[in-house]
């Protein structure tokens, strides 16, 4: 990357080599995403003319992006975006980067959506879960409303920006779980912190060093926030309402038991695309 003439082919090659030397997983893929991000070129355009020259400033930006990624800074923190449910979301260091596993939660929630529902997303973060539910309901012609709650003011700024992009009309409330929640809802969804504290240090650097700790740490057994949310949810859920959680792959049985203890019925555990337990849901039929 030290020459004065930059081509797509050479930039991509050198970027890949740099990331491979740094031990970055999926180095070729990340090198491509960053090239696409900086040059706005498609895969088809690249294949048609790989020796197309790239402007010096764009090449230099790409080089800096590659160096940043080589330091294990998440790709999404460089581009500022992450796709989720086919929608583009703004992300930064204040929110958990949306992951494909979480799409299972959205898909299961959408199966339960009915016109007029009021939905609460607890620990909303970037707002990707709530915004996706509202957007896909809208596409189906189903009118629902949504509220997102998070303890982090900085996370809520991101969620509000995402709502401005998607125009779903979601409302966002800052508070410690149900602290500032006064209404009752037909559906509560949540992807709370659920990683056991002692396990965080074993996660990839991109996660343990750059995702907000507050969005990861589920305390000693990973169930701390499930206990609190399930217990308090019964004060804020309507009769016949649904509570849906994302869970860790080994937490389905324990979270199901928590729902049962608080009177939830029709409890189900759903698996993700990898065949792992990912969503626990139940219905509250008490007055």
From TrEMBL:
<comment type="function">
    <text>Methylates the class 1 translation termination release factors RF1/PrfA and RF2/PrfB on the glutamine residue of the universally conserved GGQ motif.</text>
</comment>
<keyword id="KW-0808">Transferase</keyword>
<dbReference type="InterPro" id="IPR029063">
    <property type="entry name" value="SAM-dependent_MTases_sf"/>
</dbReference>
<feature type="domain" description="Release factor glutamine methyltransferase N-terminal">
    <location>
        <begin position="11"/>
        <end position="80"/>
    </location>
</feature>
<dbReference type="InterPro" id="IPR040758">
    <property type="entry name" value="PrmC_N"/>
</dbReference>
<dbReference type="GO" id="GO:0032259">
    <property type="term" value="P:methylation"/>
</dbReference>
<feature type="binding site">
    <location>
        <position position="150"/>
    </location>
    <ligand>
        <name>S-adenosyl-L-methionine</name>
    </ligand>
</feature>
<comment type="similarity">
    <text>Belongs to the protein N5-glutamine methyltransferase family. PrmC subfamily.</text>
</comment>
<dbReference type="InterPro" id="IPR007848">
    <property type="entry name" value="Small_mtfrase_dom"/>
</dbReference>
<feature type="binding site">
    <location>
        <begin position="191"/>
        <end position="194"/>
    </location>
    <ligand>
        <name>substrate</name>
    </ligand>
</feature>
<dbReference type="InterPro" id="IPR050320">
    <property type="entry name" value="N5-glutamine_MTase"/>
</dbReference>
<dbReference type="Pfam" id="PF05175">
    <property type="entry name" value="MTS"/>
</dbReference>
<dbReference type="GO" id="GO:0102559">
    <property type="term" value="F:peptide chain release factor N(5)-glutamine methyltransferase activity"/>
</dbReference>
<dbReference type="Pfam" id="PF17827">
    <property type="entry name" value="PrmC_N"/>
</dbReference>
<feature type="binding site">
    <location>
        <position position="191"/>
    </location>
    <ligand>
        <name>S-adenosyl-L-methionine</name>
    </ligand>
</feature>
<protein>
    <recommendedName>
        <fullName>Release factor glutamine methyltransferase</fullName>
        <ecNumber>2.1.1.297</ecNumber>
    </recommendedName>
</protein>
<keyword id="KW-0949">S-adenosyl-L-methionine</keyword>
<feature type="domain" description="Methyltransferase small">
    <location>
        <begin position="104"/>
        <end position="198"/>
    </location>
</feature>
<dbReference type="InterPro" id="IPR004556">
    <property type="entry name" value="HemK-like"/>
</dbReference>
<dbReference type="InterPro" id="IPR002052">
    <property type="entry name" value="DNA_methylase_N6_adenine_CS"/>
</dbReference>
<keyword id="KW-0489">Methyltransferase</keyword>
<dbReference type="InterPro" id="IPR019874">
    <property type="entry name" value="RF_methyltr_PrmC"/>
</dbReference>
């Amino acid at each position: 990357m030290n020459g004065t003439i930059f081509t797509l082919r050479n930039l991509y090659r050198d970027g890949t080599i740099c990331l491979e030397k740094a031990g970055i997983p999926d180095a070729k893929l990340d090198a491509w995403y960053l090239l696409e991000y900086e040059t706005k070129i498609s895969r088809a355009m690249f294949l048609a003319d790989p020796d197309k020259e790239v402007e010096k400033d764009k090449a230099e930006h790409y080089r800096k992006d590659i160096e940043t990624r080589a330091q294990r800074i998440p790709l999404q923190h460089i581009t500022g975006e992450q796709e989720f449910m086919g929608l583009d979301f703004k992300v930064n260091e204040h929110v958990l980067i949306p992951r494909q596993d979480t799409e299972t939660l959205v898909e299961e929630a959408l199966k339960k959506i009915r016109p007029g529902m009021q939905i609460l997303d607890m620990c909303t973060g970037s707002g990707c879960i709530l915004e996706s539910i509202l957007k896909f309901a809208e596409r189906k012609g189903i009118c629902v409303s949504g509220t997102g709650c998070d303890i982090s003011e900085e996370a809520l700024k991101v969620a509000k920006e995402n709502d401005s992009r998607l125009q779903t009309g979601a409302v966002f409330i800052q508070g410690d779980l149900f602290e500032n929640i006064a209404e009752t809802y037909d559906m509560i969804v949540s992807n709370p912190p659920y990683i056991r504290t002692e396990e965080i240090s074993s996660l990839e650097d991109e996660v343990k060093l750059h995702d907000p700790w507050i969005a990861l740490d589920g305390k000693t057994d990973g169930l701390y926030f499930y206990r609190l949310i399930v217990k308090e949810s019964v004060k804020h859920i309507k009769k016949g309402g649904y509570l849906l959680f994302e869970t860790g792959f080994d937490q389905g049985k324990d979270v199901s038991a928590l729902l049962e203890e608080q009177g939830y019925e029709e409890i189900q555990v759903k698996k993700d695309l990898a065949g792992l337990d990912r969503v626990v849901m139940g219905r509250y039929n008490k007055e």
